[in-house]
Write a structure and sequence with these properties.
Elements (H helix, E strand, L loop, with lengths): L1 H4 L4 H10 L2 H6 L8 H9 L25 H10 L13 H5 L3 H14 L4 H4 L1 E7 L10 E6 L2 H15 L16 H18 L14 H4 L2 H10 L4 H12 L2 E4 L2 E4 L10 H16 L1
Parallel strand pairs: 1-3
Antiparallel strand pairs: 1-2, 3-4
Helix pairs in contact: 5-9, 12-13, 12-14
InterPro entries: DNA/RNA_pol_sf (IPR043502), RT_dom (IPR000477)
Pfam family, one: RVT_1
Protein name: Reverse transcriptase domain-containing protein
């Protein structure tokens, strides 16, 4: 119904359904609930929590900070979708695909080597995506931080390097290059079938971490990054970028003092490092 009422052409209906954007069409033109921007501004700028724990002992991956090569940047760039939203500087994926790959690679190396991103690239704009049909309160939205495509490009390269070396708990399914839904469903089916065959009791625990991406401490992010192989230069890069993190919400910039950015390719892998420690201790 959302699709047919929105005026979307018949040839685009399948794309809208597959991408799950019908909820945006249904809510298009609706006003934000009262004080939504103020609420999310306060969430993003909330003071960080200290994490005095020492990093876990682990191997440091020097390869994560080696010079970036064209063999890495070319496939990463062409895997990026052309229709992704631009950041505040208006640069699109299609734009950077028109640049010489050697120039782009050199530029990424300069940014990475500096361990400090310029504000016009790292500053993000917040897009509030609806999580439901009836938008009643501020928490009915999910804030997506959209930085420059150049930064998303660089972070995709870092993620490709890091994810291939990560050793996570066996049952860590989220945000990895694996069919997590199929594997998790198969494990659950096996556990239930075993319990039925043996006629024994079974208990399950569901832990819903509210606003998890928005609440994780920056100190925890850095601690876990070091625990999972980040060498000193990458830690400096992460520390500097999170310290300088700002986002435009409405017409005002807020300093993001905690959390990982939803919409940043690095965020899922940094978040699952924190959750992996929880899984290992369960």
């Amino acid at each position: 119904a959302a699709v047919t009422r929105s005026g979307v052409s018949s040839k685009d209906v399948a794309k809208v359904v597959i991408e799950g954007t019908w909820d945006e069409l249904l809510n298009e033109g609706q006003e934000l609930p009262l004080r939504t921007l103020e609420y999310w501004g306060s969430v993003l700028s909330r003071e960080d929590q200290r994490d005095p724990r020492r990093p876990l002992s682990g191997e440091s991956f020097a390869a994560l900070v080696e010079p970036i090569m064209i063999d890495e940047t070319r496939p990463t760039l062409w895997a990026m979708r052309n229709d992704t939203a631009p950041g505040l500087n208006g640069l699109t994926t299609r734009d950077i695909k028109s640049y010489p790959i050697g120039v782009l690679t050199d530029y990424l190396n300069v940014l990475y080597l500096s361990a400090s991103l310029p504000a016009h690239l790292w500053d993000a704009r917040i897009k509030l995506l609806p999580k439901c049909v009836r938008l009643i309160k501020p928490t009915d939205f999910r804030p997506i931080a959209i930085a420059s495509v150049i930064i998303r490009y660089l972070h995709k390269v870092i993620v490709c390097r890091w994810s291939s070396r990560l050793k996570l708990a066996t049952f860590q399914m989220a945000s990895l290059q694996r069919d997590g839904c199929l594997e998790a469903s198969s494990v659950l089916y096996g556990v239930l079938r075993d319990a039925i065959q043996r006629t024994r009791g079974l208990a399950a625990v569901l832990l819903d971490v509210s606003k998890a991406f928005d609440s994780v401490s920056h100190e925890t992010i850095l601690r876990n990054a070091e625990s999972y192989g980040a060498p000193p230069h990458l830690l400096r890069y992460l520390g500097n970028t999170y310290q300088a993190s700002r986002a435009l919400i409405g017409s005002d910039f807020v300093c993001c003092k905690r959390g990982v950015r939803q919409g940043n390719p690095l965020s899922p892998i940094l978040f699952i490092m924190a959750m992996d420690e929880v899984l290992r201790g369960a």
